[in-house]
Amino acid sequence: MRLSRSFVPTLKETPAEAQIVSHRLMLRAGLVRQTAAGIYAWLPAGFRVLQNIAAIVRAEQDAAGAQELLMPTIQPAELWRESGRYDDYGKEMLRLNDRHERDLVYGPTNEEMITDLFRQSVKSYRELPQIVYHIQWKFRDEVRPRFGVMRGREFLMKDAYSFDLDYEGAVVSYRRMMLAYMRTFRRMGLKAIPMQAESGPIGGNMSHEFIILAPTGESEVFYDAAFEEIDYSASGFDIFSPEDLARFVGLMTTHYAATDEKHEPGTWEKLAPERQRRGRGIEVGHIFYFGTKYSAAMGFTVAGADGRPVAPEMGSYGIGVSRLVGAVIEASHDEAGIIWPDAVAPFRAAILNLRQGDGTCDRLCEEIYAKLGLAALYDDREERAGVKFADADLMGHPWQIIVGPRGAAAGTVELKRRAGGERQELSLDSALARVL
Ligand code: ATP
Ligand code: MG
Fold this sequence. Notes:
By secondary structure, this protein is an alpha+beta fold. It is 33% helix and 28% strand. The two termini are 17 Å apart.
């Protein structure tokens, strides 16, 4: 993209309404704009980040054998009456009427809808297990939308649903999602710690929240220093091997990790003081086993091997795709701006033309831009070098290719790595080889 013709409205001033750094930087870097309380428009650069994050989530769900589909945002209230949640959900649920006075809701989640879809078509034990997911907008009328996209009212979520014949199968699905989640967050440059979460009336330890450590997080967290040393890439585990999954989940859950809601001071105090870590965290994902809660309430059974009806065991698995954009920035920034991890950056590189209008500089920049295409943001504005440097640092591109008159005459550019800040004078070809 050419910055002179791009809708990337950067701000010099810090917007007064933003309380945390990711919100400030998302507004200043021109990624999003609020259109109503807790509702955001994703501008071109921000939308690219959102798409990159969604692509990583999708790739890891697919690799775990989950099937992507797309359910609507609008749901009939009838399904929610069947599960009993129409009244329970309260004011967080946005309720609507169509012209025929039918009750509808804007989906805050999709357990009812997916159970209904399965109940219509899945009839035999032979068709299970299955995991399906979608990446779709949700609406929750949060009491206090805040922190930008971190706690919005409209937000993008990946939600997956598993259907198994029995408890043992459901455990395998749950573990598979836990491994997929650790790989997903790792690819975004994040270290997420699975922490035991409230699992409601069903009990057991089959609910985990995935927490990114950040001083601005909404939850207080307590964890064992062992998490500072674990292999977050979670390599060496076969996601389709139940034995590997058991081993992996064992590794993730033997050390103490809890949010304030589930914190047990008694257990915590037994941990050696030098291993006790306390901090704040952002919840970026949540996995949940709930047995036959929805299948039983909504009359969904399949014929078991002996012909008798069985209510499938279910779980649901959420990732806050839009919240992750903020979470990545919370984890990766400095005083000058965002530092995008390569995997989620809106552009791999910015091309900074320090003397727009100078024939040699313009020609070299155009050549680089032609080679990099959409991977680059070409700062072709008639602006001072200082403004271009500041905006490139603010927007956080992993690489800056700096083209000035002296280097351009000699066919060289300066290459800056945003993380770390090293600059190197290189020939055009070696600079491009580093960037691509
Ligand atoms: P929270 O405790 O933060 O309200 P939740 O328990 O209500 O989250 P889930 O229903 O488990 O959230 O939703 C799955 C994921 O969706 C969460 O882990 C979070 O990353 C994201 N999410 C939930 N609510 C919001 C929101 N209001 N804005 C942005 N993302 C959200
Ligand atoms: Mg919530």
